[in-house]
Amino acid sequence: MGCYKLQISLRGLALLVFKKRGKKKLLEVFAFDQNFGRLKPIFEVSFGPKVSKARNKARGGGLDLLRKETGILHDSSRVNTSQQNGVAKRKNGHLLNTTQVLLFQGNVPKSYWGEAVLTATYMINRILSRVLDNKSPVEILKSFYPHFRTSNGLTPRALTKRELKDAMREEMSTLERNKTWEIVERPKGKNIVDCKWIFTLKYKVDGSLERHKARLVAKWYTQMYGVDYQETFAPVAKMNTVRILLSLATHYNWQLLQYNVKNAFLHGDLDEEIYMNIPPRFEGNKVCKLKKALYGLKQSPRAWFERFTKVMKESRYKQSQGDHTLFIKHSAAGGVTALLVYVNDIIVTRNDEREKHEVKQRLATEFEIKELGKLKYFLSIEVAYSIQGTFISQQKYVIDLLAETGKIGCKPVSTPMDPNHKLGEVKEEPVVDKRMYQRLVGRLIYLAHTRPNIVYSVSVISQFMHDPREPHLQATYRVLHYLKGNPGKGILFKKNNTVALEAYTDADYAGSLVDRRSTTGYCTFLGGNLVTWRSKKQNVVARSSTESKFRVIAQGLCELLWLKIILDDLRIKWDGPMKLYCDNKSAINIAHNPIQHDRTKHIEIDRHFIKEKLEERVVCMSYVPSEHQLVDILTKGLNSSMFHDLVLKLGMEDIYFSA
Known about the structure:
The chain contains 18 helices and 26 strands. It is an alpha+beta fold. The strands form 7 sheets. Strands 12-13-14-15-9-16 form a 6-stranded antiparallel beta sheet, with helices on both faces. A hairpin with a 6-residue loop joins β12 and β13.
């Protein structure tokens, strides 16, 4: 780490920070010592007027000598007088807090601490303040000192690092090779979009540093709707589709390959006329007229996906009606190739060896791709293979989460949720950091893509993100304590004798203490492998347990029909109708009964929908005893014995755990 000196100028309006190297002790705020003679010319060059007075917390030392040589008045603050040094202390705390946030949010190594301090200072000086009538400190300084300029020390010093300079050159080379823009004269009356550099570190699956990466991004907030952008929506692959492909690949012994499109957004074609300033550190008097999409532009995801779709359709691939990011091609010999795209990450699975080489060659012709070999790591999901099947987990993600939250050494618990929890809106309890809580719950929501055993707990704690209190935070920490006990647990896809579709549905009637709404839960199996699941509070209050379970039956049926669409597009066949299990006999009887009852008119649409599919023999409903109901783990808190029994029945294992 480095240390720094902080100068607050113009009555605390702006900061001047000077990074110190080779010093063991952090200099006190407002403590001008023997180095002030070297800093004094910098102040005078920046602001113009001569320095006439300097203050520190003690008399004597270098300032007394400086006073004799330059005539500068030396003032010292009185002991225990916060009015004189409180401004500096508060600003120092603000600066350090901002620096820590930059390091944490950007996952930046501590060796860049000094650069982060300077970057935080740069930001603080340019953020609008209500105290300054919605002006930034730099604006105020320029009004007093028209010739004011920031020294080189106030720009992100990370640019001086050789690795990042090389990363910038590589990015610029890619942009120029891709013909992303052409340099033109600055047009009159046109909106000019600004841009900036973003630096990140790319890590390998084992956590080691892979490379430094620089990305030039457009400042989207300088765009104007209707002028330089229109539509912005672009689909991304559903995680449910990922699990379906993994289950099918395991069953049919299809190979799973992974590709990465380098600078994917740069391949998108733009329909709008967009002008952008020349990138920082490559400045000039002209501007860039964009011909291709650029990261940061609001329409970039859409432009990239439209270009990718066009290439796939030209190669005779068809988009799935169930997931538009899934592209499928069938050969005359009966082979199939499926390609799933999530922004710039692509999963390919197939049993057609010829098409494997053709699709690779076509992608390499149109885009700059990197073949990553067999699918092993995809969107923080780790994929492992064995004779038993294909295993997915997020072990590294869990360990990183525990480390970030300071829970790496916490005591494990056996369940993620207290079976007798009474979480509700507790206004009398202390408020917790809202942004921290939302970020933590968001991380857990993403983890639930491979951990259905925490889905109910995450569903409950996510209901309080608008006003989190201490009990809600403790419930969230309990989930982390549970994860500490089995960070490597995940889902094992096995090869079974059938690819039949099954769904289990259930509802916890009036389970919410806040509004007495019921909790919906369902899970679906493809060939005996768990592929989709959900736990969610219902939108309306149910007037009976039968009504609440009837609603979840309709939702479970919709999920089965969606799965059928994906399988039909892949031309996967199975024998017999889809099966739907429910532990409520009244709901099953109503679904089969053609007579309309007064007590079912408020769920009439769901009843007709289910009845129609039953008559078409698309699905058949069966009763399952409550003791065999798998969905209980998605609708309520359970004791340790029942919880672990259901975890095993869902097909969850921990291949990293040694018995």
